[in-house]
Specification:
Helix content: 10-25%
CATH class of the largest domain: Alpha Beta
Radius of gyration: 20 Å
Number of strands: 15
Order of helices and strands: EEEHEEEEHEHEHEHEHEHEHEHE
Strand content: 25-35%
CATH architecture of the largest domain: Alpha-Beta Complex
CATH topology of the largest domain: Quinone Oxidoreductase, Chain A, domain 1
Number of domains: 2
Shape: globular
Structural class: alpha/beta
Bound molecules: NADP nicotinamide-adenine-dinucleotide phosphate
Length: 341
């Protein structure tokens, strides 16, 4: 193998509030030769996820924090360019934990990277980072397993135009629910209604969520899929029905807080309505991802299910591109492209 030069973003410091450029270091190093059982993956796409902000904190969570000087953890899709493993051949496209770097090198059986093949003939590669990947699995199992929707029920989802939100709303529509999104801005609201088929969308940046819920959920809220936490969660809690289900998927409004996370003040609504609030961690469903891909893939093939990706170019843009998530600047699943397919 000709010696390739790898480039990586490593965590340099634990951010306080919004991450800054100085929280990262950009490093260059030569790739070593591989030994038997190993592969080199050239990263093509990196998935940028709100969870990355949590992984930068030194706090107990469902996964250990990224260590200082470690390559930033990220899911990615790449092409196997060197292989000494029977599991993957040169030219295979794989999805797994590439990290924020140009090349991944290691054992083809590495459990943490967890590479598996993806087929660009079945779906464009970016779709495997959206509905057919981690955000889609989160939406599908969070809604169906935790939320248990029934036809005719009203489902509200925040972060509606984002990666998880797009899929939640469309799966809920497929299951016969009335779906109301909450998103920031007219363009995002128009998109989820006109292109994804939601029944309505509340623009929380220009209007009142409380008034929007009154108008668009005249029969109350049976399921709230919460991607944002904070004030919006509190407001939705005032409109829930008897036996409502609140799915705690994320709380992006709180991730860069320098003060403690704001909990829901209106939680007694759960008591009054005999409702439940339950968290979801997507990795609990790995064994069942295939079922979700099969069902959503079929809806896509039938033209009944659409997704939007927001692809930004260049590894060197990583620190700024990641921030788009927290500024609401991404429109669809945020992906960083760092090499050609
Ligand atoms: N539990 C799990 O296993 C799991 C797995 C994946 C993702 N998640 C969570 O799911 C949520 C959505 O993730 P995603 O990947 O689909 O991201 P995304 O929705 O594609 O992007 C983030 C969006 O959040 C919205 N946002 C940012 N700051 C906000 C604020 N202060 N208040 C309200 N909305 C705000 C913005 O949309 P607007 O322009 O509409 O404000 C932004 O575009 C996140 O909370 C994430 O942590 C959880």
């Amino acid at each position: 193998m000709t010696i390739l030069s790898n480039q990586q973003y490593r965590l340099a410091a634990r951010p306080i509030g919004m991450p800054k450029h100085s929280d990262w270091s950009f490093t260059t190093e030569a790739l070593r030769e591989i030994v038997d059982g190993e592969i080199v993956v050239q990263t093509i796409y990196i998935s940028l996820d709100p969870a990355m902000r949590g992984w930068m904190n030194d706090a107990k969570s469902y996964i250990r924090p990224v260590a200082i000087n470690e390559v930033m953890r990220a899911g990615g899709i790449g092409k196997v360019i060197v292989s000494k493993s029977a599991k993957f051949a040169v030219g295979d496209y794989v999805s797994g934990g590439t990290g924020v770097q140009k090349y991944w090198i290691g054992s083809a059986d590495d459990k943490i990277a967890g590479f598996y093949k993806v087929d660009p003939k079945l779906a464009p590669l970016p779709k495997y980072m959206n509905a057919l990947g981690m955000p889609g699995m989160t939406a599908y199992f969070g809604l169906l397993d935790v939320g248990q929707p029934k036809a005719g029920e009203t489902v509200v989802v925040s972060g509606a135009a984002g990666a998880v939100g797009q899929t939640v709303g469309q799966v809920a529509k497929q299951k016969g629910c009335r779906v109301v999104g909450i998103a920031g801005g007219k363009d995002k609201c128009d998109f989820v209604v006109n292109e994804l088929g939601f029944d309505a969308c509340i623009d929380y940046k220009t209007g009142s969520v409380k008034d929007g819920l009154k108008e668009h959920c005249p029969n109350g809220v049976d399921i709230y899929f919460d991607n944002v936490g904070g004030e919006i969660l509190d407001t939705v809690l005032t409109r829930i029905n008897m036996k409502a289900r609140i799915i705690i998927c994320g709380a992006i409004s709180q991730y860069n807080n320098t003060t403690p996370v704001k909990g829901p003040a209106n939680y007694l609504s759960l008591l009054v309505n005999r409702a439940r609030m339950e968290g979801i961690v997507v990795f609990d469903y790995i064994a069942r991802y295939g079922d979700a891909v099969k069902e959503m893939g079929a809806w896509m093939a039938q033209g009944k299910f659409h997704t939007r990706e927001d692809i930004v170019q260049g590894l060197e843009t990583f620190p700024d591109t990641l921030m788009m998530l927290f500024e609401g600047k991404n429109f669809g699943k945020l992906i960083l492209q760092i090499s050609d397919e």
